[in-house]
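anyone seen this seq b4? input:
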Amino acid sequence: VPPEAPMPVNINQLLREVLELCTPRLLAGGMVVDWRPTAMLPALIGREGRLRALFKQLVDNAVDAMEDNRLKVRELRIATARQGEDILVTIDDSGPGIPQELRFKIFEPFFSTRGAQKRTGLGLALAQEVVNEHRGMICLDPDYEGGCRLRVLLPVKSHDES
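predicted toks r here
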């Protein structure tokens, strides 16, 4: 299969589609979604299928974390914003968060905080790969309390076109 060609991608639309795919699980888990797209985001030049897989993985991880969490509040917050020449996507969950000592390992292949029987541990490694392909950045917010916050920063234009 040849690699998908980069094309203009509407990140808000793509995230809305990912949320629709995840709706049955979110409803079943009693999770509240706080969706805050920034209006008038520029289209991003990227591989739509890869970006969809990236955000689906991040939402699935958040849902997994909250399913394991016995707390009453299960909230998934997704926001988009423009930051200069980049688009910032923030995904917060009210799960247990990632322990300090594991934070530097979460993007390594085969590392999982969830026990071998549940996952391959490739999710965030693949997410990192997709972000790298788009010359972006993905990071865990170390100061976020009350769950986990991931920030994905993607350039609107790939460096090939500049």
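DSSP finds three helices and seven strands in the chain. Residues 48-68 form the longest helix (21 residues). kinda curious what u guys think
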